[in-house]
Design brief:
By secondary structure, this protein is of the alpha+beta class. Helices cover 18% and strands 30% of the residues. It contains 3 helices and 9 strands. The model has no long low-confidence stretch (mean pLDDT 83).
């Protein structure tokens, strides 16, 4: 489902310039889940694990970010990731056997699940070791 289409701004006094061929889409699984939630309850929420991701990390996987400058922790102490033992600097390399290339892909994969689903994640520790953790996805409407 297309959610937005990029368009160049029109020059002063001229007609709209049209699409530049760049679109943004929402995965079909997310559309179905959100539509079902809206029909059933009138609201929707998406699954989260309770971390801020370091979207500037250039390696493979999704790096759990450091604490924010305002003091907000990189790992929500009440979140699924904290319960599974994740800490800032850990790198999530796969979810249920699906390799994670970067933080954006992790978000897309998580949104294909439902709140309450249980996932298995492969994690590269800050000390270089690997481990498998299980997390129950929590909900967020943000």
């Amino acid at each position: 489902m297309n959610s937005a289409i990029a368009q160049l701004p029109s020059a002063l006094g001229s007609a709209a310039s049209g699409s530049i061929g760049l679109g943004f889409a929402i995965p079909a699984e997310q559309v179905q889940i959100t539509a079902e939630q809206l029909i059933e309850t009138g609201t929707s929420e998406h699954p989260v694990i309770g971390v801020f991701l370091d979207l500037e990390y250039a390696g493979d996987g999704a790096r759990v970010g450091d604490d924010l400058q305002d003091g907000t922790p990189g790992v929500d102490p009440d979140g699924a990731a904290a319960a599974a033992g994740l800490v800032s600097g850990d790198i999530i390399t796969s979810i249920d056997g699906r390799d994670i290339e970067d933080g954006s892909q992790l978000i897309v994969i998580l949104r294909s699940y439902r709140v309450g689903d249980i996932i298995e994640a492969e994690v590269l520790d800050t000390d270089g070791g690997t481990r498998t953790v299980t997390m129950t996805l929590q909900g967020s409407s943000e």
